Structure formats: structure tokens, C-alpha cells
């Protein structure tokens, strides 16, 4: 395949893109990272800012020293950078967390009230937007269409059936398995029409597309939003939860301790106002600096340009995958809905962990395989029965089902995709050979492990 413009003008903005890694044959190649949906490498600007700011690092909200004041101001400004990035309302609080998972757990605790209240989540969620609701609410799942997309018909019929008892619709902005982008503002409209609120898991959405929460008086407004810095080129452990301050005013926070309170006696607690109330302990100032640097860089590059570049990558990859015999793709391309830059597939005759291992050992290509912490979604895409799932749950030594996922970031290139497609075509043409050669992977597919349950890892 020949492509006239194989490079990425974004590539030199990201750290580590030219690092050489060893192959099984002892040779070294420049690594190809197609696992950006799990985590992205840092932007060089992020590393630079962290290094330059390090001499100024001091405690946040805990001192009158000059450096403490500088750090506290920067940390608080970070909330405004985030607010502007997603156009959150001024009555919303921006809470800094560790990641999306922590943000959703925090929201679930804050909203938890009576069990009779219903949270509608969906059949396509990451476990982070499924499990935290289960023990606190009555949970029901919005169904999928045959193509694996979210069914808005199912959403509406559930909203009707629960007759006003739905408190929240918790839905992902984009799937980490199929890459499908959900029509969030349409979902918000429906949700609000039935008196409920909407939470959007932005982990796979916010890094790839321009997101706008819209004003609260718009029926298409997003009430709550969460996302992770490490999926948008800002490691150092910062996530975000945004929502109306009133939600957190009366809720008892999950984490309690210093920084979240006014005056405390052994008999009583005077809570601080949100967001401080929700951020007990020493804040992750460097993580926030990393996040705001990434936001500023991505905004300057323009999220629309990023989205269209990544669309070219994913379109090219999907077109190539469709030409390889034995490949099944788990999302269809029908031109009706947008997607982010990832796709999952299987190759007949080879287990997903074998494919991932071969790509890594032969060409230094990092992909993800397994259930991607979206177990129910992958189970549905693979049409696994309840009996089959039970069987896998109770037989530790069985090769778990799953898929292979490739996911792109701004620095990936068409040339890298060509390397991947060439190797995958070769593997597909020599399936039996590779199945035998890599049979040990199925027994010992966790590095240093006992071979059990390795594919459950997200
Ligand atoms: N939601 C989605 C859609 C994800 O893909 C992920 C991670 O892959 C998460 C939530 C959890 O993100 P984190 O691990 O940063 O908490």
C-alpha cells in the first residue's frame, strides 16, 4: 500500500516516539505504540513544564510561604483551565481526582440516596462506569443495536418504564472497545425530558474531540463529566470530575481528612465547600500542572484538527484490516456515526493473546488484547451465553475469550499502520505456523505469572 503523506506533524510533540526497543531476535526497532486508549505517552511540553516548575514545587493550600502561594494559585487556576476546555458552567465544581475511575466512584457516593432510585447505564460501558453504581442504586442497562451501538429506543423505553425514578443516565462518550462515539447531546435531551440527569464518561472522548458541556439551561447540557489526564498525554495521576456544586454540598465525601474541612472537634466536623471538601489530603499539584499543560497544547493544536487526523489513521487501518482474510472487526463502518481512533478485531485460528505477543515480539508493536475492562460489552459482541461466562468464571485454566485492540494517538502515522498491516497479513497467511510457534503464550501469558486469568487485566 502506498500512502503519499505517511508522517504526523504532531509526532515531535510527544516524548519517546523514537525509542528503540528489542525484538525477540535481539534486533532493535523503533517501538510502535497502538495502545493509546490505555494510556498515552507524555507530551514533551508536559515534561518540560514539570522540570521547569520543579524548583517552585511546594505544598498546596498549606502554607504562607511564597512557593506555597505560587503552587496554590496555579492549582486553583487549573480548575479554570479545565472549565474553559469543556465549557463547564460557572456553578459547576471542577474536582481533581486520580483518574476517571476515582471520579465515577466519587460521584456515585455523592449521589447515593435511596435504593429505589435508578441509574441507567449501558451495555457498552467500561467497568468504571458500571460497577460503582451497582451497590448504591437499582441499575439497569440500555441495550445495544445489532451493530453494537447504543439503542436510543431502549433508552427512551426505559426512561418511560421507570416513570420518573431514573436519577441518572451514565453513559460513555466513546467506547474503548468499538470506538463508537455516542450521540451525547441527543441522549442528554431525552434524559432531561424525563427529569433525569446525565453523566458522561469522557475517558475515551475528551482526548479526541472537542467537548462542550453546554449551558445548564440547554436541554442538551451535560450535567456531570469525568476524564483522565493520562489518556491525554498528561501522566502524573490526575483525573477530573465536573458537576453542579449543589451535588457535593450535602454529600459526605468518600475520602475524609485534612484539607477537606474547616474546624473539627472530636464531636463535630465543619466541612469545607466543594471542591476542597472532595479533595482530602495533599493535592497532586504536579499532576494538575501536567493536565493543564496538555489541555493548553491540545487546544492550540485544535481538537478538530486532531480528530480529523486521527480519523484518517483509523479509516486507513480499518480499510487495511478488511482486506486480510480471517479478520473479524467488532465495529462496523456505515458512515452514520462518528468514532474515535480505535478498533477491535479477532483473527480466526489465533488467540488474541498470541496475536498481541507476535506483534510485539516480531515488530515491537504494542496493542491491547483481552476484555479491555469492558467485560459485558465484549461478552455481548462475542455473543457469549451466560453458561459460557459461568464456565470461564469457574475454570481458571481456560483461555479466556477476548479481542485485539489498536488505538491511535496524535503521533501515530500511516507508515506505522502499514508495518502493522503487513505483519498481520503475513501472520494471517501463516496461521498454523504461528499458532504452533506461540502455543506457550496461551499457558503463560502473564509475564512472570502462572498463566491464569491474564486476559482479565484491563
Ligand atoms: N472509561 C473508559 C471508557 C475507559 O476506556 C477507561 C480506561 O481505559 C476508564 C473509564 C477508566 O479510566 P482510568 O483507568 O483512567 O480510571
List keywords for this structure.
458 residues, alpha/beta, Aspartate Aminotransferase, domain 1, Aspartate Aminotransferase, domain 2, 2 domains, seven-stranded mixed beta sheet, four-stranded antiparallel beta sheet, 15 helices, 16% strand, disordered N terminus, binds pyridoxal-5'-phosphate
Please report which band the strand proportion falls in: under 5%, 5-15%, 15-25%, 25-35%, 35-45% or over 45%: 15-25%
Second CATH tier, the architecture of the largest domain: 3-Layer(aba) Sandwich
CATH level 4 superfamily of the largest domain: Type I PLP-dependent aspartate aminotransferase-like (Major domain)
CATH fold type of the largest domain: Aspartate Aminotransferase, domain 2
Q: What is the number of independent domains?
A: 2
Which overall shape is indicated by the principal axes computed on the Cα atoms?
Answer: globular
Amino acid at each position: 500500500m502506498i500512502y503519499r503523506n505517511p508522517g504526523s506533524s504532531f509526532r515531535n510533540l510527544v516524548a519517546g516516539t523514537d525509542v528503540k526497543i528489542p525484538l525477540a531476535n535481539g534486533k532493535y526497532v523503533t517501538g510502535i505504540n497502538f495502545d493509546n486508549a490505555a494510556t498515552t505517552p507524555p507530551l514533551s511540553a508536559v515534561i518540560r513544564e514539570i522540570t521547569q516548575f520543579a524548583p517552585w514545587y511546594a505544598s498546596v493550600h498549606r502554607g504562607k510561604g511564597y512557593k506555597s502561594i505560587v503552587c496554590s494559585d496555579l492549582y486553583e487556576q487549573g480548575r479554570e483551565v479545565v472549565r474553559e476546555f469543556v465549557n463547564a458552567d460557572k456553578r459547576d465544581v471542577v474536582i481533581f481526582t486520580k483518574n476517571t475511575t476515582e471520579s465515577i466512584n466519587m460521584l456515585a457516593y455523592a449521589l447515593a440516596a435511596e435504593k429505589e432510585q435508578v441509574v441507567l447505564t449501558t451495555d457498552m460501558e467500561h467497568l468504571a462506569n458500571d460497577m460503582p453504581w451497582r451497590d448504591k442504586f437499582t441499575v439497569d442497562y440500555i441495550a445495544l443495536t445489532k451493530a453494537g451501538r447504543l439503542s436510543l429506543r431502549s433508552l427512551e423505553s426505559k426512561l418511560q418504564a421507570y416513570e420518573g425514578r431514573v436519577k441518572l443516565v451514565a453513559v460513555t462518550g466513546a467506547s474503548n472497545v468499538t470506538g463508537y462515539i455516542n450521540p451525547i447531546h441527543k441522549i442528554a435531551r431525552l434524559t432531561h425530558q424525563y427529569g433525569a440527569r446525565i453523566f458522561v464518561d469522557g475517558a475515551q472522548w475528551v482526548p479526541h474531540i472537542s467537548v462542550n458541556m453546554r449551558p445548564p439551561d440547554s436541554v442538551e447540557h451535560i450535567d456531570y463529566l469525568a476524564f483522565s489526564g493520562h489518556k491525554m498525554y498528561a501522566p502524573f495521576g490526575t483525573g477530573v470530575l465536573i458537576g453542579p456544586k449543589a451535588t457535593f454540598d450535602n454529600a459526605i465525601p468518600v475520602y475524609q481528612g485534612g484539607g477537606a474541612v474547616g474546624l473539627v472537634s472530636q464531636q463535630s466536623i465543619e466541612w469545607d465547600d466543594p471542591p476542597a471538601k472532595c479533595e482530602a489530603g495533599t493535592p497532586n499539584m504536579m499532576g494538575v500542572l501536567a493536565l493543564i499543560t496538555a489541555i493548553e497544547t491540545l487546544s492550540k493544536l485544535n481538537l478538530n484538527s486532531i480528530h480529523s487526523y486521527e480519523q484518517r489513521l483509523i479509516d486507513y487501518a480499518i480499510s487495511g484490516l478488511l482486506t486480510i482474510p480471517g479478520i473479524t472487526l467488532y465495529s462496523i463502518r456505515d458512515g452514520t456515526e462518528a468514532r474515535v481512533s480505535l478498533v477491535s478485531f479477532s483473527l480466526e485460528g489465533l488467540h488474541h493473546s498470541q496475536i498481541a505477543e507476535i506483534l510485539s515480539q516480531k515488530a515491537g508493536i504494542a496493542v491491547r488484547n483481552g476484555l479491555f475492562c469492558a467485560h459485558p460489552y465484549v461478552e455481548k459482541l462475542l455473543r457469549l451465553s451466560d453458561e459460557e461466562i459461568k464456565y470461564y468464571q469457574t475454570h481458571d485454566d481456560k483461555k479466556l475469550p477476548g479481542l485485539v485492540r489498536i488505538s491511535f494517538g496524535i503521533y501515530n502515522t500511516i507508515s506505522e499502520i502499514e508495518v502493522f498491516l503487513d505483519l498481520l497479513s503475513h501472520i494471517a497467511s501463516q496461521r498454523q505456523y504461528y499458532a504452533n510457534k506461540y502455543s506457550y503464550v496461551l499457558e503463560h501469558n502473564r509475564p512472570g505469572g502462572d498463566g491464569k486469568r491474564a486476559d482479565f487485566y484491563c
